[in-house]
Amino acid sequence: MKVKHYVDVPGCPVEVTLDLIDGRWKGVVLFHLLDAGCLRFNALHRRLPGITQRLLTKQLRELEEAGLVSRTVYAEVPPRVEYRVTEEGESLRSIFDALARWGEMRLARHRAAKPKPAGC
Amino acid sequence: MKVKHYVDVPGCPVEVTLDLIDGRWKGVVLFHLLDAGCLRFNALHRRLPGITQRLLTKQLRELEEAGLVSRTVYAEVPPRVEYRVTEEGESLRSIFDALARWGEMRLARHRAAKPKPAGC
DNA sequence: GTATTAAGTTCCCGAAAGGGAACCGTAATG
DNA sequence: CATTACGGTTCCCTTTCGGGAACTTAATAC
């Protein structure tokens, strides 16, 4: 989600899709939301070892802006914010399944001099 | 293809796959190689308006290192170098098809205040 | 002897992404 | 009064990505 420099090079449909899930984290965030259905900020954070709050916020905002994730704030204290995939985000599920299957095959294929494939 | 910082966070299979095709160009390069079967450097270059030689070289080397693309050099002058997808790269075809289909659906859905979806 | 060609490489730069650490506001809890 | 909890924000820094332009190499054609 960037529309970066290619304002004049709108790009093929493949680019359109990849743009939405590229970067270090967006794919994984979506994967977890698809998996869990609905997650609060810290619950998601716990599933993503290594990401900082700053980045997680950023990714979620971008996914929200792209229309793939919805953000619901409950006026409580302490705050409660729930994230879930939108209908359009849900439509990515089969793609993520395909990506995951392919990744598993690749890990299996290259199971030599590779670290262990830890949980997601 | 980076193995970046996550030497100790091997990542889920989704990450494995996305890592191989992320960035501004890798996806498109693979797309064209899958489309054409075999392309010489400059032929590929012509299909990618905007990329510089430097970057195209870089992307191809990374794809080659990842085992998705093969590079055949013919000892001629002027040089001839042919790129084609490997068997493993070929196995990504269905994923690219899925990405393209989803991207088209998205473009169709968001056909408002959007530039025209030009050819890839 | 000059130009051309294919497939790069080198250098150098600016922009963007990624990341660490501290800080914030409110309410309940001890 | 201090602490905890949640969901962030701010500041600042480093790394990576993307890109422009010039240079290279060796054979062949003019």
Automatic annotation (TrEMBL), chains A, B:
Q: Name one GO molecular function term.
A: DNA binding
Using the record's annotation, list all stretches that form the HTH hxlR-type domain.
12-111
InterPro entries noted in UniProt: HTH_HxlR, WH-like_DNA-bd_sf, WH_DNA-bd_sf
**One Pfam family hit:** HxlR
Q: Which Gene3D superfamilies match?
A: Winged helix-like DNA-binding domain superfamily/Winged helix DNA-binding domain
User: What keyword terms does UniProt attach to this protein?
Assistant: DNA-binding, Transcription, Transcription regulation
Family matches, as SUPFAM superfamilies: Winged helix' DNA-binding domain
Q: What is this protein called?
A: Transcriptional regulator
State the species of origin: Telmatospirillum siberiense
